[in-house]
């Protein structure tokens, strides 16, 4: 169960990350690193070794899951460190739940942008062509990186904030 003080610890971090991500599409280390360290420290002071273990598990869950997404170019390094900080404050289960809701909001935002720009059919044709090529050649490496310069970009924090709120509401 998520506690109110944990949410109070995460709220200013999310607000600062939202502000910087909207302005520059970056979340600087001066926000994420102290937030992660603070989450571990506060959890340790309040709950001792169990708190420290939960904080490190949460930070690890956020870090590992977002590193996978970073590896495919879906998020930036600041998002990775931000989810480690969220995990340090709230634990692994809440972090995973937040990520799932954030991905859903991100998909809605992404498709909204695609539809707004009226490029939905072009993007579907490109994806279908890539999948057909992979199926025919059986070599996904031939298509790795193709279209990366065309990837849809928007501040992921626009999805993380409502994802976090929905996770809090469900907690």
From TrEMBL:
Membrane spanning residue stretches: 54-78, 98-116, 151-170
GO molecular function terms listed in the Swiss-Prot or TrEMBL record: aspartic-type endopeptidase activity
Domain (Prepilin type IV endopeptidase peptidase) ranges: 11-110
InterPro entries noted in UniProt: Prepilin_IV_endopep_pep, Prepilin_peptidase/N-MTase
GO terms under biological process: signal peptide processing
GO cellular component, one term: plasma membrane
Top-rank lineage group of the source organism: Bacteria
Pfam families xrefs: Peptidase_A24
UniProt entry keywords in alphabetical sequence: Membrane, Transmembrane, Transmembrane helix
Family according to the record: Belongs to the peptidase A24 family.
Protein name: Prepilin peptidase
The organism of origin for this protein: Paenibacillus spiritus
Species lineage: Bacteria, Bacillati, Bacillota, Bacilli, Bacillales
């Amino acid at each position: 169960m998520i506690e109110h003080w944990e949410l109070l610890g995460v709220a200013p971090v999310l607000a600062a990350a939202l502000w910087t991500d909207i302005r520059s599409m970056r979340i600087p280390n001066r926000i994420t690193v102290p937030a992660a360290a603070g989450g571990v420290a506060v959890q340790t002071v309040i709950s001792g070794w169990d708190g420290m273990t939960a904080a490190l598990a949460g930070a690890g869950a956020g870090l590992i899951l977002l590193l996978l997404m970073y590896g495919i170019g879906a998020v930036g390094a600041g998002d990775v460190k931000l989810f480690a900080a969220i995990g340090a404050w709230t634990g692994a289960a809440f972090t995973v739940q937040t990520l799932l809701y954030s991905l859903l909001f991100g998909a809605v935002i992404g498709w909204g942008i695609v539809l707004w720009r009226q490029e939905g059919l072009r993007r579907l044709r490109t994806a279908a062509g890539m999948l057909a090529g992979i199926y025919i050649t059986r070599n996904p490496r031939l298509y790795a990186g193709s279209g990366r310069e065309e990837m849809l970009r928007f501040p992921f924090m626009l999805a993380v904030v409502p994802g976090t709120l929905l996770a809090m509401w469900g907690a």
